[in-house]
Amino acid sequence: MRPNVDPVEHLIALLAKLPGLGRRSARRAALRLLMDPETRMLPLAEALRSAAESVKKCRVCNNLDSRDPCSVCSDPERDAGLICVVEGVSDLWALERAHAHQGTYHVLGGTLSALAGTGPEELSVAPLLRRATEAREVILALPATVEGATTAHYLAERLEPGGVAVTRLAQGVPIGGALDVLDDGTLAAALKARR
Amino acid sequence: MRPNVDPVEHLIALLAKLPGLGRRSARRAALRLLMDPETRMLPLAEALRSAAESVKKCRVCNNLDSRDPCSVCSDPERDAGLICVVEGVSDLWALERAHAHQGTYHVLGGTLSALAGTGPEELSVAPLLRRATEAREVILALPATVEGATTAHYLAERLEPGGVAVTRLAQGVPIGGALDVLDDGTLAAALKARR
Ligand SMILES: [Zn+2]
Ligand SMILES: [Zn+2]
């Protein structure tokens, strides 16, 4: 009944692309929004537009934030000598929510993977090596997967000759588990018990 | 670390209010959007704005559509003498997806509930009674709940004296089940076997 360019169908199609929303829940979400255009739909549209315009990648650590350098990097109370290396921005956010880390971060943007053809040039490795020359300790908070371990090994080999202490998350990170689905307590414990 | 008005936190809070998205998936969705502001985030913002501006309630049947009367009501090939009464817009959309109904619809906007204090005045009952005077048959496609049955009974008592045939969805609607989570085949069968 609806032409292809129908705004409702178009909205449902875009919502269905979000992680966690299938087509059915996208439809329910669209309907809920349509029932309250003024109080739900337009505020969400405006929040998206505003975030898209204001959020940038931090030039120091690659975090996504409305400030550049990000609010972590520009906080004078954060220990810039202690850099926590994570795979992605979601891991950084998870560690921030856990209030587990008083230093700064470095978002690699992925892990090394021969299979996926991801080499060090595809990741933010060179900027990390530069930052590490001014740091006291680098914590490798990478996922407990083969790729995460490979990446940690690779980074440790390049970092340690520079004299910086290289530590890793210890117990608490389940094998194969992503950091950003862990509860805050587990994250805090794993960070405290780093080796 | 972030002030309260942070655009990212604000976006996550709004996304978390959508049905089907918890706080964790809202965060994942926000991050995914933030990673592609031009190709994902701004198009979604624009789709929301455009839908909010163009979608209205159909003056005839209460459907939500970019046309008023809606695309069903304004389709000359739909049988205006056959009105299918549903609780909500999501039920209308479910029946449309199932291509189960060649007539028109009437969205009640709820079911009668003494507990919730929903009387006939809170629902679109009077407009339905007016439309029914010109109709041949009214199909009561209400949920198989106590409130749905009460509402169907109430409507049948008011409709039948006017001479219109009143039918109901038959087999296939599970007890306590909402229409919009049924598969298309079940919906089509229930409609065909109406009594
Ligand atoms: Zn930063
Ligand atoms: Zn209509």
Automatic annotation (TrEMBL), chains A, B:
PANTHER family: RECOMBINATION PROTEIN RECR. The keyword Transport does not apply. HAMAP family: RecR. It holds the Pfam family RecR_ZnF. The keyword DNA damage applies. PROSITE patterns: RECR, TOPRIM. It comes from the Bacteria. It comes from Sabulicella glaciei. Keywords: DNA damage, DNA recombination, DNA repair, Metal-binding, Zinc, Zinc-finger. A zinc finger (C4-type) spans 58-73. Residues 81-174 form the Toprim domain. This is Recombination protein RecR. Belongs to the RecR family. May play a role in DNA repair. It seems to be involved in an RecBC-independent recombinational process of DNA repair. It may act with RecF and RecO.
